[in-house]
Design goal:
Layout: E1 20-29, E2 32-39, E3 41-46, E4 51-56, E5 66-71, E6 79-86, E7 89-95, E8 106-111
Antiparallel strand pairs: 1-2, 1-8, 3-4, 4-7, 5-8, 6-7
Length: 113
Amino acid sequence: PGANAPATPTADYLYRDNIIKAWCAVTFSAGTPGIDDDVNVSSLTDDGVGLTTVNFATAFDNATFAATASARSDTTGLMIIINVKATGSVQIATRNDVGNLTDMNFDVMCVGD
């Protein structure tokens, strides 16, 4: 419990390195991102159309954490990209089917030190 995972982790055992340390559900209203629900997220920064930075309440030890995001939309052809990672934040870029930056609802999760 709370320990770093050994080279070969023990099956069915939780280690601090494999627990989700930050997640957020983001919904846009009139072009402004808002937090629906979260863990360890202090705020959002609207960096322009299609660019949103998720700021952590408690930073990661380094910027090599793993991050994943998914768009919440019925539209096909959407792209979501982990654009920039920093110890205290992750920036998400969302694009439409022709590659243009566009605002869309998304969820993001981060795991790491």
